[in-house]
Amino acid sequence: MKKLFQIPVALASMERKWLVPLIASSFISITLFLAATVSLGASSQRTRVWGFLTSDSDASRATYVEDYLVQPPPPSMPAPPRLGYVIQGTKGDGLRLRRVLQALYHPRNHYVLHLDLEAPARERVELARSIRTDPTLSEVGNVHVVGKANLVTYRGPTMVAATLHAAAILIKQKADFDWFINLSASDYPLITQDDLLHVLSYLPRDLNFIEHTSNIGWKEFQRAKPIIVDPGLYMNKKSDIFWATQRRPVPTAFRLFTGSAWFALTRAFVEYTVVGWDNLPRIMLMYYTNFVSSPEGYFHTLICNAPEFRNTTVNHDLHYIAWDNPPKQHPLTLTMTQLGNMTTSGAAFARKFPRDDPVLDKIDEEYLGRAPDRFTPGGWCLGPTEDGQDPCAVRGDINVLKPGPGAKRFESLILRLLSPSRFRKYQCVIS
């Protein structure tokens, strides 16, 4: 055994000056080999982690170990999304539209305000003037008042046409938005825009929030089979829809869906409805022209019959709405007594509110931190608050968000909606 560990005679007789360099070079070679092995192992881990974010062509160019070591760190927070709003009202809603706008306003977003044709021109001009003379709104330039108003008939397809009109305006203006949200003058936010944008920052931008069901029940006989005509399509004065004596069968070329008239739709789906590279959006629009309460069916049926979008739906409209039991035609009017239920719902919006009801002041004070006739403060507001000064008079970085308690409430709702036990289960289900 001792012979195995004896140093060869040739090595022992080697000159002493070569011994130290030999041992040193061997040590350095082993060290470099081990370092390269560890680096390659670590870089292969990075390659697997970052492979979701880089293309195959990028990975193929990373030939050397150093190429893996210079990979950028993951971002600490995703970029906030941008929202496109349409807020619609009728005669006497000019001041209400402005109040909803102030409660919802954020410089990152885009807003279309529509007072329908029943509102006098003077009211529409006054609304546009208030937007134009506001220093922040005029400087940012992200609020558009529809000048050529549409006549909107209750339960008729003209509401769908007005909503598509607003979406087309945003697309034509090349407005950058990730979700398109429709509201009315009787809606109001329950959380700040910083709360909403913060939570939405962590969601995929292809989720469409729209309450829907294929179990249309009594609506088959009272809405789908009757044939109606909306005078708002061809008259200058508003009047109720009128009914044809003939009835029609339920479609067999597509499945009918119905649900809430309020939603938050992705830009991709909005462009699909407006541009219509497939013919399905036009077919649906023609069919729902004679459908009772078409705002509660057009977008729902379209999205659930479009293969590229049916798996993107989240079955909720992000609203708190109270109904009678059994539900009647209109929801209950919200007052201070429902404030607790609004809070626990986690919803971003609620409706319907009476005009200038004290519950709106309470929401401003406790949920939004908003003073009368001012914007809801957010991370973009850098001004002082002493002596009643408006913090939003000084505008800072619009990408900075300061979420509050509302973000937690809204996050809880989103987590419930996207839970594995619910998300796919309620997605465009054919019953």
Automatic annotation (TrEMBL):
It is a single-pass type II membrane protein. Pfam families: Branch. It comes from the Eukaryota. It is found in: Membrane. GO terms for molecular function: glycosyltransferase activity. GO terms for cellular component: membrane. Keywords: Glycoprotein, Glycosyltransferase, Membrane, Transferase. InterPro entries: GLCAT14A/B/C, Glyco_trans_14. This is Beta-glucuronosyltransferase GlcAT14B. The lineage of its organism: Eukaryota, Viridiplantae, Streptophyta, Embryophyta, Marchantiophyta.
